[in-house]
Amino acid sequence: MPALSVEDLVIAGDAFATRDPRLVAALAAAGAGVGGRGRRKLRAASELVRSGSGSPMETRARLAFGEAGLPEPELNATVYAEDGHFLARVDFMWRGPRVIVEYEGDQHRSDRRQWENDIQRVRLLEDLGWKVVRITAADLADPHRRRELMRMLHRLVG
User: Fold this and answer.
1) Rounded CA gap, 105 and 57, in Å?
2) Is 64 within 8 Å of 96 (Cβ atoms)?
3) What is the rounded distance in angstroms from the CA atom of residue 93 to the CA atom of residue 109?
4) Helical spans, DSSP H, in 2-158
5) How many C-beta atoms surround the C-beta of residue 20 within 10 A?
6) How confident is the model at residue 107 (pLDDT cuts 50, 70, 90)?
7) Beta bridge mates, 94
8) CATH architecture for segment(s) 57-157
9) 61 Cβ contact partners less than 8 Å away, ≥ 6 residues apart
């Protein structure tokens, strides 16, 4: 069985930490006690684990943002309408510049109700002054698309 990459470890760590945020500190402590070849990877991963990721692809996107030098976004942040009622929970938010990134898995395309709800949701967010950037797995996997996405986010987020 091949060794897990730092990214694999972060994905697993995010999944656990999202269920119980106390696990972020526990993972960091465990990394300090590990010896041998895996120690460096575990330490690197423990520094990158965050609570709040909704999926492995959201973790991959967050790691790509960090590699590109973007400030860390809020994860699965809540947006309220001007009158205070709940509007949306979004994958990634940079509150100051009012930028939201939504990772769109295939179910956002293949499920008609989901697709229609997504369109309305984006329309409502944009009406409140948010810039919404929708991304897919291809935006992270294809080097050219990834560079263009990160360039755009740098421009929007600052």
Assistant:
1) 8
2) no
3) 22
4) 6-19, 22-33, 38-48, 56-67, 107-110, 112-127, 137-141, 143-157
5) 10
6) low
7) 99
8) 3-Layer(aba) Sandwich (3.40)
9) 91, 92, 101, 103, 135, 140
pLDDT of residue 40: 86
| pTM of the predicted protein model | 0.87
Provide the CA 89 distance to its chain's centre, in angstroms: 13
Tell me if residue 36 falls in helix, strand or coil: coil
The pLDDT score that the predictor gives to residue 149 is: 99
Task: List beta partners, residue 77.
Answer: 90
Q: Which two tokens stand for residue 12?
A: 């697993």
For the segment 2-47, what is each residue's pLDDT rounded down to a tens digit?
A: 788 999 999 999 998 888 877 766 666 666 666 677 788 888 898 9
Cβ neighbours, 10 Å, residue 62: 24
Hey, how many other C-beta atoms are within 10 angstroms of the C-beta on 29? 10
> For 111-154, how does the pLDDT look when each residue is reduced to its tens digit (9 = 90+)?
788 889 999 999 999 999 999 999 999 999 999 999 999 999 99
Q: Among residues 83, 76, 96, which one has the least CA distance to residue 124?
A: 83
Structural domain spans, the chain: 6-51, 57-157
